[in-house]
Design a protein that fits this description.
- The protein has two domains: about 240 residues, FAD/NAD(P)-binding domain (3-Layer(bba) Sandwich), CATH 3.50.50; about 170 residues, no CATH class.
- Helix content is about 30%, strand content about 25%.
- The chain contains 13 helices and 23 strands.
- The longest helix is centred in the C-terminal third of the chain and has 16 residues.
- The structure holds flavin-adenine dinucleotide.
- Flavin-adenine dinucleotide binds next to α1, β2, β8 and α13.
Length: about 425
Amino acid sequence: MIAIIGCGASGMMAAISAARAGKKVTILEHNDKPGRKLAVTGNGKCNLLNENREPGNYRSQDSRFVESVFAAFSAVDEIAFLREIGIPVRNKRGYYYPHSETAASVVAAFAEEMERLRVRVLYGAEVTKVSPLTADVNGYRIEYTIAQDSRQMYAESVIFACGGPAGDHLGAGDFGFRELRRLGLTVSEPHPALVPLLLSNKNAKTVSGVRLDAEVTIDAAGESNDSPDAGSEKGISSGLGLPKTEFGEVVWTDYGISGIPVMQLSRFAEEALSCGKKVLIRLNFLRDMSNEEALREVMRRTQEEAFSERDIEHAMDGLVPSKLMYVILLRAGVSPQKPAREITPDEARRIHKELTDMTLPVTGTRPFAYAQAARGGVSLSEINPDTCECVRFPGLYVTGELLDMDGNCGGYNLQWAFATGAIAGRNA
Ligand SMILES: Cc1cc2nc3c(=O)[nH]c(=O)nc-3n(C[C@H](O)[C@H](O)[C@H](O)COP(=O)(O)OP(=O)(O)OC[C@H]3O[C@@H](n4cnc5c(N)ncnc54)[C@H](O)[C@@H]3O)c2cc1C
């Protein structure tokens, strides 16, 4: 019998793969239903995979491990599998979704296939301890509680598919990290990834709610994050692979900043902060203009007759949302009420700087409840990429978010969970 801890994305995939190979499978899941996290992915639409094979989308210490996993269970394999269980996919510029665009339909299809294959699922079963049996007897003892009743079961193989603490309000947690470390595996501490950032921004409330495309750069320098909320600091290469840049819609909030480009960069910001670096976020709201064009555009609004009767705040109308422009003027040290014709060349240059390189200190990330992934996990050196079996513990497999790999936003994490789940289930 194979025991699987966790009825999420990788656990359900592992169960189906193992059951299709003729194995008896029991899943232990502490929630009262399958795939709670899977059901909310992609804002309820479930971004299942991505056709972009760039290695940079998979952040790990060992890119060959990632390649081996996708060689053993490719995007084509995933699409074929999903189709078999009744989930044809929709390709939206390389991002794949279920045709229904409903994550709940993906969870239901997995659950129905598990039922057809007679996979046994114990809901409300909180796994508390996993121990290898003696040197003479292969297998594992799994201790768990159901409604405070302590129980145990024995299995020839155990698959750790219990995910990480990202989205911890959905039943996720760090049990797998703690338990595998207790068993002696090298497990690095989980940290939030794909998560909104906290900023030191005294104008946060004013700008909260603004959404606007921007080029976003994360930069780091120095040892502490104690710089003033000033807009002129230039970062220095940190040795952590920074600076890094993304483009897309930025969402301003009263705690800081969010949106896809911010989420993509957040793990780098968090990593640099964890190393004691001072981290800066730099925003260019006029990325579609060259630096010279952007400066000319600002200058012309302070010089041409069409704008000369307006105050500078209104002379800038149309470039960025007015709430953001107001904050830009405050940061540039220019009164929003000042007549446009009275703006000095130096003031115009400061406004241009804030529009093209607004720089704010990052003070942290939102907690795991707001994260979509975890940086850290079981060292890939502990795991055989062809089987997902632990090198030092035959019969013990590790999948999905528990492994030290975190993917970009865009379907990469589910693709990883499904691929590692399929490989572990097939080999267990
Ligand atoms: C809000 C949100 C949106 C996301 N959107 C996307 C997206 O669109 N595309 C994408 O690729 N990725 C997305 N992700 C990431 C993706 O959901 C995860 O990478 C993936 O679910 C990880 O799969 P897993 O099997 O490792 O863990 P999970 O899917 O988290 O499954 C782990 C299961 O184990 C159970 N469990 C934990 N501890 C125990 C225990 N002690 N005993 C018993 N059961 C236990 C949990 O309840 C859970 O059901 C999103 C994540 C979040 C939080």
